[in-house]
Amino acid sequence: MNLKSERRGIHVDQSELLCKKGCGYYGNPAWQGFCSKCWREEYHKARQKQIQEDWELAERLQREEEEAYASSQSTQGAQSLTFSKFEEKKTNEKTRKVTTVKKFFTASSRAGAKKAAEEKTPKQGQLGRERNADNILRDLKEIFTPSWELSSPSEEIQEAKAPSPSIHRQASIETDRVSKEFIEFIRTYQKPGQDIYKQCKLFLDTMSHKRDLSIEEQSECAQDFYQNVADRLQTRWKVPPEKVEKAMDEVEKYIMTRQYKYVFCPETTDDEKKDLAVQKRIRALHWVTPQMLCVPVSEEIPEVSDMVVKAITDIIEMDSKRVPRDKLACITKCSKHIFNAIKITKNEPASADDFLPTLIYIVLKGNPPRLQSNIQYITRFCNPSRLMTGEDGYYFTNLCCAVAFIEKLDAQSLNLSQEDFDRFMTGQTSPKKQESDSFSPDVCLGVKQMCKSLDLLSQLNERQERIVSEAKKLEKDLIDWTDGITKEVEDIVEKYPLEIKPKSQALAAIDSENVENDKLPPPLQPQVYAG
Known about the structure:
This protein has helices spanning 36-76, 80-95, 107-120, 125-142, 153-161, 165-168, 173-187, 191-208, 215-236, 241-263, 271-284, 290-293, 302-317, 324-346, 352-366, 371-381, 384-388, 390-407, 418-426, 445-495, and strands spanning 4-6, 9-11. The protein is mostly helical. Among the domains are: 175-263, Serum Albumin, Chain A, Domain 1 (Orthogonal Bundle); 270-426, VPS9 domain (Glutathione S-transferase Yfyf (Class Pi), Chain A, domain 2), CATH 1.20.1050.80. Helix 9 packs antiparallel against helix 10, helix 11 (271-284) crosses helix 16 and helix 14 packs across helix 15 (352-366). The longest helix is centred in the last third of the chain and has 51 residues, at 445-495. The chain is flat and about 155 Å long. Its main location: cytoplasm. Keywords: Acetylation, Cytoplasm, Endocytosis, Endosome, Metal-binding, Phosphoprotein, Protein transport, Transport, Ubl conjugation, Ubl conjugation pathway, Zinc, Zinc-finger. It is found in: Cytoplasm; Early endosome; Recycling endosome. GO terms for molecular function: DNA binding; guanyl-nucleotide exchange factor activity; small GTPase binding; zinc ion binding.
């Protein structure tokens, strides 16, 4: 991605945020500009090529070892004991089942195999080398099996006997809470929910025995698992897409809450080193002002200042979350506060060209902890559909661009001369202190500090007067509102006065003695007619 710096501000074409393969999804600098789908395809191609080369190398090594062993046997003569051991070893190697995945690419597996070979045949160095070649071929066969699947039942029993740190580890309160919420959620899916829970337990049990895998391989396992579960829900159980998305969010929350301790900023990566480098870089750039970045935000407006504080709080809070989706939510909330701050300042909707410089300024001002680790964690273990499309993917891609810009920021990016940029970076001067530097060199440091304090007091006094003025205005508005309501009520009462009418008399009964009854016709009398 090419980050461009112009005098009008920092600008990134929206097309540069998309996957460079042209699939239409958002790309990511961590994936060399590809989206997660295209990156996995490219990764698999390169990986298969490397596997093929390693396979050919292993076969060649095995042939060389066999030829060397055969020649040594012919020169030294037949040694029955050694030959019987060799035959026994070859038989065991042929009947042995695959028990590991991708151990060939890890240092621990190679060291373990070498140590085991040396213990069994301490005096047969040549036989140990041949065993090593056989182990390479055996391990390479395992690579073509999906890494998240379990091995055979007999091997499950053997692995289950080994002590697992996760079994004896005391579960945290958050882990227990997430587990209960996940169980309650999958109950609503009935049979598909049971299948989801079974697959999740299977995956967690598998990963507990694969701690020696590299973080990239563990990430590949997680991505394969997400894809497999989503496909099962859609094809086997015919679950609607909206319910599949909701289920995948809960699966990610349950899985990554339990895996967070092992896969966030692991010791086998240089994530921590990158974190320290970014933090040091941001501290060195503390002198960068909004004007240098062409940030269209005025912090003098109280509402805008509050939005900036909330945005910084959200980007810092990202480090406290354990689920990739929750970390993405913090980035999204931060970005929305930025858009609101720009909208209030400009009195018009914010554009993408306004958003990126402001996001860079927020990152510089907040200096979020473990920024690179959080970005790498989201990239490796988040549900890929969230990073490829939607506002979460858009905001995350912009954050990656902002971090890349900060790492490569130079004098030209800020429209400064190289001399001024070097002076600011070394701390010889600061653009924020240029006005105070107008003092005479003879003026002591105490006088400069006093002037600075007076300026701060003046600003606080103005702010206090503004608050008092607003409070008096509010009090006046309340009094005027009360008087207005009272006047309206009085006008209504005057226009429609309340008339109290006397109590009406009760209606007289028909058979009561009343004067008005005289006006009634006489009652009918029965008459008898003679027939």
